[in-house]
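If you are new to this repository, start here. Below is one unmodified record pulled from the training split, so you can see the exact layout before writing a loader.
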Amino acid sequence: VQLQASGGGSVQAGGSLRLSCSASGLIFSNYEMGWFRQVPGKLREYVATIRASGDSPYLVDRVKGRFTISRDNAKKTVWLQMNSLKPEDTAVYYCAAKSSDSSQWAYWGQGTLVTVSS
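And here is the target side for that same chain:
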């Protein structure tokens, strides 16, 4: 199983980025997908998830109204659209996959760095 995250970069506050995560080696449509982020020295933080069917996207309060999670099961890809970025959004962003009948995030991507300057 491989999750390949991409799309990170450096932007100024108020800017936008779109992260992508392409999956291979798994039946993508059977997996809930999530985005997490981590700042060096801090715990990994949950950001957003979307169910295997693509419904019921969920985002944590601190990114609601600014971020959107979506997926295309035919393309085996999940995206995180990030608008109105803030310096506190700076982190390494990871995508992850969890079987619909499991509570554990079984597979993780390598991470992509997002840097937001003020």
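Two things worth knowing about this chain: The CA atoms of residues 35 and 109 lie 10 Å apart. The mean pLDDT is 96.
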